[in-house]
UniProtKB/TrEMBL annotation:
Pfam families: CcmD_alt. Keywords: Membrane, Signal, Transmembrane, Transmembrane helix. It comes from the Bacteria. The chain crosses the membrane at residues 50-71. Residues 1-23 form the signal peptide. This is CcmD family protein. It comes from Pontibacter aquaedesilientis. The keyword Membrane applies.
Length: 89
């Protein structure tokens, strides 16, 4: 259970690591320097495809999280089995 909590905290930490990048974008908007138009992002946002990108990204992250939790459970079972085998000798 501790491992699952640690994995979740790691993922939340990684998501929060991207927050400074967002803050820099906001600071760039407030500055008086001319803004660069990012055509790809504007076109994805305009066509509504940005939501598809976000959905795919969230699906991949959810899959990785599910895989890590399943792997943690399997390793826990193997550790318990190994411990039981060692004690029963």
């Amino acid at each position: 259970m501790f491992r699952v909590l640690a994995i979740c905290c790691f993922i939340v930490g990684m998501l929060l690591a991207f927050e400074p990048a967002m803050a820099q974008e906001q600071m760039a908007e407030l500055s008086s320097a001319p803004q660069q138009n990012i055509e790809m992002a504007d076109s994805l946002r305009q066509d509504g495809k940005i939501y598809v990108v976000v959905a795919v990204l969230l699906t991949v992250l959810a899959g990785v999280l599910f895989y890590l939790i399943a792997l943690d459970r399997k390793v826990g079972r193997l550790e318990k089995q190994l411990k039981d085998d060692y004690v029963n000798r």
